[in-house]
Amino acid sequence: MSRIGRMPIAVPQGVEVNIKENEVIIAGPKGELRRSLNPDMAIVYEDNNLVVTRPSDSKTHRSMHGLTRTLLANMVEGVTNGFEKSLEIVGVGYRAEKSGDKLVIRVGYSHPVEVSPLPGVTLAADGPNRIKVSGINKEVVGEMAAKIRAIRKPDAYKGKGIRYAGETVRLKPGKAGKAIGVRE
Length: 184
Known about the structure:
Elements: E1 9-10, E2 16-20, E3 23-27, E4 32-36, E5 42-46, E6 49-53, H1 59-80, E7 83-90, E8 95-99, E9 102-106, E10 113-115, E11 121-125, E12 130-135, H2 138-151, E13 161-164, H3 175-179
Antiparallel strand pairs: 1-6, 2-3, 3-4, 5-6, 7-12, 7-13, 8-9, 9-10, 11-12
């Protein structure tokens, strides 16, 4: 049996769970999330625990078992604590600032780039070099952070660009490093 799928999900106080056929609605202090899940998976809510069971040991049911459990756990975590991704801007003159609900990013282009948040996501500029993306849906927060990072990915030679906080960028040596071993 799946090691992840068989673990029960503890539902904290103040979180409501409503299961209708294959749709699950979870409401908590931060908001409400709803998701349609695979109808083959049996989801049971009993004594403040969510338990997911699968009907057979076929490959598709085994893979859906762990996925369904993880999606439900992320929903419970999102409505109680929320999710947050931090991004760093590295480069001379590169910066971000908040303008209304939009984020204005200047990263070496001839124009500033305006980023509108996806529904359910809030953007914040913590100083000129840090961006925080937060929300209750883990997928949407990750997608928004990836879209911001894609505006100017970290350069492989100098490391300039937008990166996730704590991300290490491996720098290439450049021309001088290539010519050291070659003599004609």
